[in-house]
Design a protein that fits this description.
The protein starts with 12 loop residues before the first helix and ends with a strand. Helix 2 (43-54) packs parallel to helix 4 (83-89). It has helices at residues 13-26, 43-54, 74-79, 83-89; strands at 31-34, 60-63, 96-99, 102-105. The chain has a domain at 14-19 and 28-95: GpdQ, catalytic alpha/beta sandwich domain (Purple Acid Phosphatase, chain A, domain 2). By secondary structure, the protein is an alpha+beta fold. A two-stranded parallel ribbon has the order 1-2. A two-stranded antiparallel ribbon has the order 3-4.
Length: 106
Amino acid sequence: MSPVSTPGQPFRPDLAELVHLEANELNPDVVVVSGDLVQHEYVDQYQRARRWLDGFKQPLIVIPGNHDVPFRNPIDRFLRPMEKFRRYIEPDPNPFFYQGDLKTMS
């Protein structure tokens, strides 16, 4: 699924829960979430995204998007572009998943 963030709109817990219900009904081998997980790189947005991701029962592959890296701070964007994503979302921004014949990587 992509993108997850909704520009200019507040986070919608009701819609987020519908995504969990749909994923549980479909029961895929893996759920791939490609950024943008946050609209701006605020810590509370990363924390909310992490809580939402934790609601999935399936294995996840989470890939960062352009909104998941610093925008307002060019030094962080250059020197530490993945710091918050790695801290709050996924330590490996290039994840992979293997299960039987299914192999995925980003």
